[in-house]
Every structure is written in structure tokens, then in C-alpha cells.
Amino acid sequence: MAQKGEIIKISGPLVVAQDIPEARMFDVVRVGKEKLIGEILEIRSKNISIQVYENTGGLKPGEPVESEHYPLSVELGPGLLGNIYDGIQRPLTLIRTKTGDFIGRGVWISAIDRNKEWEFKPRVREEEKVIAGDILGTVQETELIEHRILVPIGIKGKIKKIHSGKAKVEDTIAIIETKEGEKNISMLQKWPVRKMRPYKKQLNPEEPLITGQRVIDTFFPIAKGGTACIPGPFGSGKTVVQHQLSKWANADIIVFTGCGERGNEMADVLREFPELKDPKSSKPLMQRTILIANTSNMPVAAREASIYTGITLAEYYRDMGYDVALMADSTSRWAEALREMSGRLEEIPGEEGYPAYLPSRLAEFYERAGKIICLGKDEREGSLSAIGSVSPPGGDLSEPVTQATLKVARVFWALVSELAYQRHFPAIHWLRSYSLYIDNLKNYFNKKVAPDWMELRNKAMALLQREDELAETVRLVGIDVLSSEDRIVMETARSIREDFLQQFAFDKIDTYSPVNKQYLMLKLIMEYHEECLGALKKGALLNDLISLSVREDIAKAKYIPSEEIEKRIKEITHKLKEEINKLIKEK
Prior knowledge:
There is one protein chain. The protein is α+β, with helices and mostly antiparallel strands. Helices cover 34% and strands 24% of the residues. It is built from 16 helices and 26 strands. Strands 8, 18, 19, 20, 21, 22, 23, 24, 25 and 26 form a 10-stranded mixed sheet that branches. The protein has a 6-stranded antiparallel beta barrel with strand order 1-2-5-4-3-6. The chain has a 4-stranded antiparallel sheet with strand order 12-11-9-14, with no helix packed on it. A hairpin with a 2-residue loop joins β4 (36-44) and β5.
């Protein structure tokens, strides 16, 4: 039963109340006469500090505060996919029909529709023994995703009764006989957002999350169940990269969390995603996507909730045995919210005013990613990949949020404004980025793509590094001082940058490159390099090699449809050898 205290102090999103009986850390409270949603952050004797997730304007000391006596939790069950929620899992589409274009204060609508009926198909029989994580039955949530109803965490026993047919989320679909007595199980479950969902075993990430972005998949891949950080200054394309990953990554479920981002960016997502088709099934992409929209004009405190809400929903689908990708855009806004609340709580500040516990909070978030064996008897594998963007002020990567993120994220895609200004997208810098999953994924690429995949990648990276060294010489004394071999290195590296790494997100073909196409494109560029070096030794002139007509075909290879790429690359390779042989014969 709810019990009441009263407000004694209001400081922006921080409200201090007193005399709340049996108050516990992180319990949900209802603040004021409008019952605004808040969460207990600190308990000092009788004074309880509360983080309020709604606008506190108009609150007065003396107004009541009620504790709900449970932690901030999300609702889990069929009906999540295709929805857009705010940071505390309120369905924005339904709120709009109730309050108009602006969210009214104190409005609460259930995250999952209680009246919709689902066709439940049981997977277990009566008298069968079940443990936590076992699949009781399934519901076809969308055309793309089968929703698996699991035995809740902490419950095991014998099935006394199992339902078959239509049911609402709150209806009892199973009765399980446990040591504590009979438990009625419905399709609706709740889970505290700050608590990691348990699993049976963590696995090594050895399969890549294929994104179709060449600079990522070939040079800096992320594994399924991996963690990645995308830092970059304003306008460098962080959001565009995350949109591309959301559209094309080979994950079963996408959870896109906009944390304190500008409203127009979330509006773009809302407008684009329902129109986009899933590349595998040609069904709308929203059928496997959950959007959490927390924009910069929403209350600051709700940014923290949005991050936790997103990763808890992602864990829920991971536990069903799906590959889930979580996009968090951006964790810097979350860190700013932590800094504001820490300041209002009068805590001792850390570097640049951020709380001293910022690194541990970021680590707790990214550590919830991973590839696992799910709970239950059937040994399902699931994965949760966490990809967070960071917005360092002025692109300064030495600031605390970026540095704390780099300590826990194993992939670093460094976006730089210089490339963005040159219209080079994705603006991921090839010499400042890295992936610590290369060794884990080497066997996968060598077996599934080509035996020389790793060797080819390393050669291309070496050329880009050599180009950077030579560029310094060129800046000082001009290009004419370089040897013919070094000029070929410069030309090949330029081809790698412009013809391979640069990718046009709005071109129907170039927006997505399968890994096989990526390999063939890079092999073609490296073939040009080897042929040119060989031709130089046989007396061919440098200018003739640089101005070969086949170079235009190499540049246009990115626009060749995937189904034709193998045939066309062979033709271009043949043309390359013919042109080079012709040059050699002429000497």
C-alpha cells in the first residue's frame, strides 16, 4: 500500500521529501498532487532525495510524496516491437491521443496494450517440469518476430495447467506448481531497469555483427555481443552512422535509444523507419524495432532512465535467443544528466564537474552487452551488442566521458570533422580507430569470406599508414620528390579511401555492401597496386599507370549490384591486366 511523506525542497529535477515510511534506494515514488514519476537517489536520515522524471514547475513544499515500494521497472511482453516510448516507457503515440502534441504531467499509460488478444501456442505439456528461462509458448508478435514467453526468473516447478489459443497479456496462460505453492503466469512481466537479467553462461564473441558499412566490417568490425563507441564532434555524422547500423546490421531486433538528442533527429527516425524495408524479408523495419525517444527538451533526469529502459528491453529479447543491437545516441547527454543531478545533490565533483562514479556507471551499462547461453533447458544462444555514440565538446576526445567509455568499449570508431567537411562519409578515421575483436573474428572471415581476408586487410591498412607518412613529406617538399613506387602507394591509398571507404548512404546500391562484395572490391584495388609495382620494374611509365582507363571502372565498382559483383570484378581485373600488359609491350 502506498504511504505518504511530504516535499520540503525543490531544486529543478531534484525534490527532497521527508517522512516517507520504509523508503528504499531506487524505489519509484509519485511526487505532488499531479503524481509525477520519480526515483529515490539518496536517503539521509528522514530526508529522501528524489530524481523526478517530469517537469517539476509548479510543485510546492508540503505536497504529498507516495512510495510505490518497487524499483523503476519496465513492462515486458508481446506488443513492444514497433512502438515508440519515452525514457520511462510511456507509449508516445497513445499519450498524443490523450494529451495532444505535448506530454501532460503525471500522465501514465501502460506500456503494453492490455486489451489486445494474442494467439498463444504452448510449447510445454501439463505435468512437465520447467525451470526459469524455459519457453512456455510463443506468440507471433509481428510478421518478422516470434515472441517467446519464458518461465519468469526465480520460478521452477511442474506445469499444472497450460493455456492454448487467444489470450490478453494479463490473462493466466500457465499455472506452475512450485515449492511455495501454485504460481499463475501471464505473458506480462516486469523487470527492474537497473538490474542485469541473468543468463547461464557468457560466450566468446566470435561472429561479426555485419553492418554493410565497408570501413566497419573490413577494417574495424564489431562482434555480435560486442561493445562499440562512436565519438565525434557536432556534424561529423554520429547519428547517420547509427541510423545506418539500425537499418542494415544483421541483428534480429534493434532497440534505438535517443538519449537527450535533438527532436528533429528522432523525428527523422520516426519518419524513415516505418517506410524502410527489412533487407531480408522486405517487411517494414519497424516490425523488429523499438524506439525510445528522449529528446533534449524533455526533463534532464529522464535521460538516465531512457538508457536503462533501452538495455533492459534489449536483454529481454536476447533471453529469447535473438541477436539484439542497442543504439544509444548519445551517452554524453546521459553523463550531463548525471552531472546535473550530482551537483544538485552537492556531491564532491570529479573531473570537469562529472560525478566521480561516472566511469563505473558507464562500465555497468556496457557490461550488460555480451553473447550468452540463455537460461532454460534448450541451450539457446542470444547476443546483445551495445553501440553508444559520444558527443565530446569541440571533438575533444580527452574529455572524461570519451575516456571512460574507451576503457570499457572494445571498438572505437573515431569520427572526425575534417572528413565530414570533405563530404567523406562515414567520417570514420582509419588511423585513429581500432577494433579489439579482430583476432576473435579472424577465423570467421577467413572461413566464410576468403582465406586471405586478414592478409588483404592488413596490407590495405599498411598502405594507408604509409600514405600518412608520405603525406608529411609531400606537404614539406612536394610530390615530385617521391619515388615511382611511393607515388603508386599514394594512388592506391587514395583509391582505398575514395573508392572503398567512402560510402553513399542515400544510394540504393552503395548504402549496403555485403562482406563478399567488400572483399572483392578491396582485392581489386590491391590487384591494381601489385600490377603497377610489377609494371614499374618492367619499364612502364608512372604517368601511364596512374592514368589507366580501368581506374574509372575500379572507382565505380561500389555501384555494381551484389548479384553481379563477382562477374563484373573478373571483367575489370581482366581489363586491368590487359591494359598493363599493353603498356609493358609498348616499352
